[in-house]
Amino acid sequence: MKNDVVLIIDFGSQVTQLIARRLRELNVYCEIHPFQKINDILTNKFSPKAIILSGGPASVIDDNSPKPPKIIFEMGIPILGICYGQQIMMKMLGGKVISGSGTSEFGKSFIKKVDAKIEFLEGWFEDNNVEQVWMSHGDHVSEIPNNFKVFAKSENAPFSIIGNLDKNFYAVQFHPEVIHTPNGKTLLKNFLKIAKVSLDWNMKAYREEAILKIRKTVGNNKVICALSGGVDSSVTAILINEAIGDQLTCIYVDNGLMRDKESEEVIALYTNHYKLNLIALNEQELFLSNLKGISDPEQKRKIIGKLFIDVFQKHALKLGNVKYLAQGTLYPDVIESVSFSGGPSVTIKSHHNVGGLPEKMDMKLIEPLRELFKDEVRILGKELGIPDEFIGRHPFPGPGLAIRCPGEITIEKLEILRKADAIYIEQIKKHDLYDKIWQAFAVILPVKTVGVMGDARTYDYVCALRAVTSIDGMTADYYPFTHEFLGETATKIINNVSGINRITYDITSKPPGTIEWE
Ligand code: XMP
Predict the structure, then answer these.
(1) Is 83 tagged catalytic?
(2) pLDDT, tens only, 497-518
(3) 125: CA distance to ligand 1 center in Å?
(4) Which residue among the candidates 30, 131, 140, 177 is catalytic per the annotation?
């Protein structure tokens, strides 16, 4: 059975995938396609039940601004324009957009009801005349065509919600897909209801589609999968294993940057529990010698990414006929590593499983989780029958402890860090906090400070503790431990780990910080 499909036309917004994610949460199947490809797609017997135009970094005032093909407005299906999507819809349908010098809005904003008695606004403006939304615009619509009506306005966006009720075209200046528009999902749900889209998609369907796609892509070739023991690579491996069985070989590389006892645990799980084809390699010397003397975070990531690929390529050659390298890349890794549509989104970090890859590689990548967010991967993992304790593991980044050791990496520092991290995590588990926290870890700082222990002077490293709550890793808040917990943990670490004499707790949210320190 084929589900109804909603087409999301991407104009390069950083949050386009959040639209898709919200639709999946509402059990709707959707596909995102870049605006340049829409003509090809629509002629290929692809008939969406509705279209959503995403936001984007360009200005519709520029002559060369990205546009969807005109035909979409003649297909007789509901269309929702979001932010840039609203403005381009207006420009193409006879409205006007002006540059917002002095009238831009970024972040939290409130919009006022003008007229909310329409199906699209069911559940909005119920308790009062105001709704909180998240805006991110410089330009704004200044005139709407005759057949459009205004339903809500803000101080700097007089046409915050507009619509043509005959054609079921709706357009909003804000972003209903982000969590900072608390009631945003209701709006998307109303739109889907107007479009009569069936709400019957689920992770089981995702699993089936992904398996078919993998089989079609891979054919009779062999695949190697980079297994780190984290949730993402586990789900990737098990999904691909289900698709192609023993055409898959998994490779686990101990690069000397793993946590305490990590390698033993991971190898046991995959060989005893899953019986995957697993090659476990000890490449500590290779990685640590190449990282010697390197303290720049981007350089560290690039070196690690390249070495991983070298190792995988070497083993691919040995296995013979390996065409693909599978990785557990998730959507937040992609968005923070690449610029979309040549737009101005910047590279925050070169995630090793995305931007850190060398340009020339003999294998093609397969990334079956590339469109998903972490919590969705966990749902897929459950669907695949992966045990809860594995699915619930905190994320661990590809570059491992290298990015939790700012400055030069040494074996001495890594050993100190491993011990401190293990005590910290044990404390969190003992206090039953592990599942309440998205990710917790220790960082060893490249600073020594003076202390006093047993009447003697010490001069040792500072250890920072980090724990954050998050839904998808895109934004995060520090976890509010009690002072008792922090005090007890600090004492335990200092008493048991020689080389550390001071502990600090990181209370930065993301943004402005990132979760990892590098
Ligand atoms: P940041 O530090 O960018 O991290 O706020 C967001 C989430 O991504 C993880 N992370 C990585 N995962 N390769 C990965 O597989 C990487 O290079 C990488 N860098 C960060 C990080 O641990 C957090 O969960």
Answers:
(1) yes
(2) 999 999 999 999 988 899 999 9
(3) 38
(4) 177
